[in-house]
Amino acid sequence: MQFGLHVRNVQAVIVHTFQLVSFVAIRQSDPAKAASMWKGMNELCDQALSALKHLKDVYPNCGTPELYDLTLDYKSAAYKRYTENLQDSECRNTPLPTGLFPKTI
């Protein structure tokens, strides 16, 4: 019973942190900073997965396998957003090729 409460608390941390990072990152004008936030979320998921890897087999009836799968989903989503923001930050710093657009008067 007590272990099940800890599992739900870990789930709440993963879900809530993802929501917070989403809220803050989308409002960030610098995509590199947003990428850094998503990298942190990805690392949080890695830590949770590391702890759950063994526990999901030892305590399969306490919600650990479901939490493991949910955390994998959140990690995947965070990594996708991390790479997208990282690409945006690199693109933002790439100068436009000369002659790409016609000169305006």
Could you give a short description of this structure?
This protein is an all-alpha fold. Helices cover 78% and strands 0% of the residues.
Overview of this protein structure:
- It is a single chain.
- The chain has 3 helices and no strands.
- Helix 1 (2-26) runs parallel beside helix 3 (64-92).
- The chain is mainly α and 105 residues long.
- The longest helix has 29 residues, at 64-92.
- It has helices at 2-26, 31-58, 64-92.
- Helix content is 78%, strand content 0%.
Write the layout of secondary structure elements.
Elements: H1 2-26, H2 31-58, H3 64-92
Helix pairs in contact: 1-2, 1-3, 2-3
Fraction of residues in β-strands: under 5%
Quick one: overall form?
A: elongated
Mean pLDDT across the residues is: 92
Work out the number of β strands.
0
Radius of gyration (CA) equals 19 Å
Parts with pLDDT < 50 across at least 5 consecutive residues: none
Class inferred from helices and paired strands: mainly alpha
Please, how many helices?
A: 3
